Structures are given as C-alpha cells and as structure tokens.
Amino acid sequence: GTLTSFEDTQRFEHVFKMTRKTFSYICSLVMKPSMKDMNSYTFVDGRVLSLEDRVAVSLKRLYSSEPPETIGSSVGVNESTLLLVTESFVVSVDKRAGHHSRWPDSSEMDKIKSMFEKIHNMHNCCGVICTTHIPFGPNWDREKNDSILVQLVIDPEMRFRSIWWGRISSMNMLSILHESNLFNECEEGGYLNGSKLKVALDGSEVGEYIIGDAGFPLLPWLLTPYQEEDLSDSKAEFNRRHNAATTCALKALARFKDTWKYLQGETSCPVNPDTLVETIHACCYLHNIVIDMEEDGAMPSIEEPDDSEDDAATSSVEEPDESEELRQVANEDAVVARDMLSQYFLTTMSSESGARWMQRRTMK
C-alpha cells in the first residue's frame, strides 16, 4: 500500500497533523507540477512513489529535525530520494499556494476586526505584527546572527496574512519593516484603508491598524504599547487589551515552530538562503491551509500562480524618502490615535460595566 494507507482516522491525523481532506487538497495543489516526473522516484524496494507517497514523504521531512538518512529509512526511501522529493514539493507549494497568504479583502478584514473586538475588545484592530528568526542549518553562528529574520502579520485565527524576510546579519526589526511590502502599502493607503472607528462625540475617528510590541515604531497604522511609568487608567487599559490581543501571534509562532521542526536548524535545515526562503514560504502556506480547511471544511479551488501577487518578494524596496517634518507629523498622528483609542477603551469599559450593573438590578 501507500504511506497514507491508514484505516484509523485518528492515526492518520496524528501522523500527518491534518485531516485526510486537507491532505487530499495539498495533493491536488501539487499534482500538476508533479505529473512531469511522476515515475522518477521509487522506494528502496523498487515501487514507484505515488503522488500521495511523495506528499507524505515531504511532510514527514518538514515535520522532523532528524537527519535525512533517519527519516528516509523510516519511510522506505534512500536519502537522495527524500531530499529530491521534498525539494520538488517545497517548490510546488511555494509557487502554487501563495493565495493562502494574501492580504485580506474588505469582507475578510471586517471579520478579522469583529473577532479582535469580540475576543479582546480591541476595536478596529486588523492583525498583530511580529518577527521570528530561522537559522541557517545546524552549524549556524549565533554571534554572527547567521539566520533569516521573518516578519509576519497574524490574524486572530493564527493565519499568516503577510510574510516578509531579510538576512538578520544586515537587518533588524525596523529595517525589515521599512523594506517590506506591508510598510509601503500601509503608507500609501493600499492596506488598512477600510472603515474608521468613531471614538468621540466630536466625531474623532481612528482608522484601521495593526499592533506590535515596543520593538516596532509607533505609527498611525501600527500601534505599540505605552512604555512610560505610572500609566493613567486609560493607558493601562490600552496596554492590557494590547497585550491580550498579541497572544494570537505567540500561539501561532509556537504552533508553527512545533510543527515545522525542519526549520529549527538542529540537524538538517538547508544552508542555501534561496532554498531556505522557499521552505519558509511553503511551511507558512501549509500552516494557513490547515487552518483554512479546519474552518471552512470545503475543498478550496486550485488557483494558478500569479507572480505579481507575491507579497514576499525577494527584491528589496528602497526606504521611502521622507522629510523629517513629514515623519514628525506621522509620529504626532500616531500618538493622537493611540491616546484617543485608549480613552475610548476606558469609556466603553465604563459604559459596559454600568449596563451590566443596571441589568443585575433589573433582574433583582
């Protein structure tokens, strides 16, 4: 039989960390490019690997930090076959699954904002930005920062909505943000341009925004926590909600690293930067596919790749040429937006508490 011949559904899901329906969708996603060399790879006993076998072998490889010879032996293929099959799978997913990490359209963004509001009372929030680093293989030099820095925007269901990367030896959180497609789109109004939140009786409004920790700059569309001591009630409430909302990013990164152990560099992560970036993209897309299939249940349609939509392009973008005066205005706008939002949070919290108190009195 094939490597996926499990009659027990629970056993299948334990081994492959996804439902059989999700596995079938991934097979359909990579089927077209796989047809070119369908009979090229065999088990050590001479049997040809089916499409399902190739996907199974690749997933086992990406899930593990064990040496390739150990993984190959466990699934009945030699080391070279394991490496070639996985490389082919990664390239196919990287090219054909990018639509699973698109920036949300207006209807999707409304749903995201509604979830942040319902779960964390973080009104008009559109995501959490964070960074993580991926090392260059088992011999990476921590002192030389020899790894890739990945910037992600994560929604409340732990999807990666924006992916950008750079060599950590030449970049930090600020520089990778400024070079990212996300920064340019937000600065130019392409992203976070949806409905605004009315925060005061005088008609003052706060636009859509994402949140990030204090390592990021405070911008009108990127709100960070207050850092000063002796915070007012409104600022303390903002920080409390901000901190609670960022947990989705922490959970997403923990899940990602626990699943795709291949990227942790303990034994077998590639040292070629291009190969590593393709693998990062593929694992991020697969992470999202599992969430999409768990949520919707229906089999997504297969979309042909469109190179123009690649949000994680490898070409760098020049830092915007802004004058100091424009930067100062932007900083002031960000401070005002955060202050208005924090005051709105405190006001709505007081109103909600009062409504609950009146409801309890009425019930008595």
UniProtKB/TrEMBL annotation:
One of its GO terms (molecular function) is hydrolase activity. Residues 299-324 have a biased composition (Acidic residues). Residues 299-328 are annotated as: Disordered. Keywords: Hydrolase, Metal-binding, Nuclease, Nucleus. Residues 144-288 form the DDE Tnp4 domain. It comes from the Eukaryota. The keyword Metal-binding applies. Its main location: nucleus. It holds the Pfam family DDE_Tnp_4. Its cofactor is a divalent metal cation. One of its GO terms (cellular component) is nucleus. It is found in: Nucleus. Coiled coil: none annotated. Belongs to the HARBI1 family. This is DDE Tnp4 domain-containing protein. It comes from Aegilops tauschii subsp. strangulata (Goatgrass).
